[in-house]
Amino acid sequence: MASIKDTFARIKQWLSGLSFRTGVIVLLCCIPFYILSFAQMALPISVEAKGVLWFILFGLAKTCQYGGLTILGVEGIKRLKAFFNKKEE
């Protein structure tokens, strides 16, 4: 049976094989999850339900964030920085 370290290495390798566009989409998906994780605090529900919702939504936001960064990799991050620096000029 594969160890946890081997499993994470295979997942990382699979994610890094996805396209740049997929990485950007996954990275952008973290924004609505961050907004929802804090906006749900205004709902008229119990404190326990708010805590569970926050845990789930914030976890999804972090998962999208780190998954998107893993898909993009170092070269993808450089490409995004160049795109935004080019827009400012």
Produce a short descriptive summary.
The chain has 89 residues and is an all-alpha fold. It has three helices and no strands.
H/I helix tally: 3
The main β sheet shows up as: none
- Strand content of the residues, in percent? under 5%
What's the shape? Answer: flat
Radius of gyration: 17 Å
Structural class: mainly alpha
What is the string of SSEs from the N terminus onward? Answer: HHH
Explain the overall architecture.
This protein has helices at residues 4-16, 20-39, 47-88. The mean pLDDT is 90. 9% of the residues are buried. The protein contains 3 helices and no strands. The protein has 89 residues and is an all-alpha fold.
Please give the structural blueprint:
Elements: H1 4-16, H2 20-39, H3 47-88
Helix pairs in contact: 2-3
Keywords:
single chain; 89 residues; mainly alpha; 3 helices; 0% strand; flat
